[in-house]
Specification:
mainly alpha, elongated, 4 helices, 120 residues
């Protein structure tokens, strides 16, 4: 797996950027601003980490947890009734989760290929 080439991680970065920046053009409620900026920024960092260091399944799983957190954020943060903010969390969160799910298996195979010593 080559560094900086996986489309899945670039998609996660774009989803994180959208979530973090969407607070600029959507009406915010509850703790939507803090949650969306924080979780969006963490998705950007996670995507960049996975681009720079491909083959780390733990990083992929952490990214999946962040995507789930973004999906749940409207209910946890009390802004599920603010449709603009809620949809701006649900859609990027779902997109990030879907592409991360597609990236977990190749990442795990890459890790096993390079880190498990074959039996003698």
């Amino acid at each position: 797996m080559k560094k900086w080439t996986r489309w899945q991680d670039w998609t996660v970065i774009a989803a994180g950027a959208y979530a973090a920046l969407s607070v600029l053009w959507t009406a915010q409620a509850g703790s939507s601003t803090a949650l969306m900026v924080t979780l969006g920024a963490l998705l950007i960092v996670g995507g960049a980490t996975n681009l720079a260091l491909p083959g780390l399944p733990a990083a992929e799983w952490a990214q999946a947890v962040l995507a789930v957190a973004l999906i749940l954020a409207p209910w946890v943060g009390g802004f599920a009734s603010s449709m603009g903010a809620a949809w701006s969390a649900w859609i990027p969160g779902a997109a990030a989760l879907a592409v991360t799910a597609l990236a977990i298996k190749p990442s795990t195979e890459e890790y096993r290929h390079h880190h498990i010593v074959p039996a003698p």
